[in-house]
Amino acid sequence: MNKLLLLCFLVLAPISFASADLKIAVIDLSKAFDSYYKTQDAQARIKEKADLFQKDYQDLVATYQHLGEEAQALQAASTDATLSADARNDKSKALQAKAQDLKSMERKIEEMKVERQREIQDEIGRRHQEILGEITKVINDYSGPQGYDLVLDKSGAGGVHYLLYNSSKLTDITADIIKTLNANRPAGSPAPAAASAPAAAAPATPPAH
Description:
By secondary structure, the protein is mostly helical.
């Protein structure tokens, strides 16, 4: 039943639009998003966080590797026949303690990786929604005074192309929207360029010892 209603709508839509004499425009929402200076600012801040995370991660990995080297030295000493039995026993106990330190450090590294990546992904999602909301408001504020009844996104930014075809006769307001979005761009701010928000790369698992 729903498919039948949808088919009827698609068949009758052109007639309805024509009879209502709608004024329709299109916009490339993906291009507007990428060209907004606040998108670039958000990407820069997220990259700074990702770089800091990577540095902290590498510092912990370096500590982990140092502990591993100490564990290897203790392992060798615990079986060194030139040492007394008591000395070898002390080295063996120290090795067990060092092994616990290694496990604790490995858990710490893994927990930090998961937590920081979640923080970065949450910020990417939050900033995406904020910026999209601002762009939507600009589109609404622009379209009403211009007399548009309907504005369609032609970019398929969400992965689904709702607009499969549009005539070249339809007005494309992308350039006007981008101009409005960047009207208050701070002096000295780098000119926006099309780019995608950086995703935090998953660091490698610390080497096992």
